[in-house]
Amino acid sequence: MPPPLAERLRPRSLDDLTGQEHLTGKGSILRKAIDQGMVPSMILWGPPGVGKTTIANIIAHTLNTPFYTLSAISSGVKDMREVIEAARSQEKAILFIDEIHRFNKSQQDALLGAVEKGTITLIGATTENPSFEVNSALLSRCQVYVLKPLESTALENLLHQAIEKDTWLAQQKIELKETAALIRISGGDARKLLNLLELVVQSGGGQKTLVITDELVMQVAQQKIAM
Fold this sequence. Notes:
Layout: H1 5-8, H2 21-24, H3 29-35, E1 42-45, H4 52-63, E2 67-71, H5 77-87, E3 94-98, H6 105-109, H7 112-117, E4 121-126, H8 130-133, H9 136-139, E5 143-146, H10 152-165, H11 167-171, E6 174-176, H12 180-186, H13 190-203, E7 210-212, H14 214-226
Parallel strand pairs: 1-4, 1-5, 2-3, 3-4, 6-7
């Protein structure tokens, strides 16, 4: 089974990223750091589906750096120590921790030494205000970058890119007649937007040309909620 549309379309470079120009656009602080290969440990703070994981992946890919991923939902101190130990043999390594706000104080403290010594470059992602959810000792060793919900123009561009660039969608005959419902339901979340687009296209299988309207999108969305 192929991965979801949002995963298939995950950007591989900053130039392909939709939104967050204040962080990743030409001349921005984060882009300069990446271009210079001098990326600090950081906390990426923003709502779901705005590019936190994608930015972490792009940084690792651009710097050609060993990349380790942990989820604070399912990982503990033992997992972190194993990654840190593995990173000691690397010249540089990035540790990405999704939902870092779910780690308790002792779990966060376990990262301090490795971050301070540069054994790892930490990239933490959180939907919660890090000032309240990340302990001060760890926070003082990280830059905090705030990501914004995607605006309507960026979301609409993303829809057109998906239809043109995704191999499966490109094989379908799709007329994107209306986008208001897709954009409204997504709430600025690119992942939710693309997942809903994929559901809508799947629901119209067999049609010679699928005309995507707000009414069709609402029907599909309501069916999903009822399941």
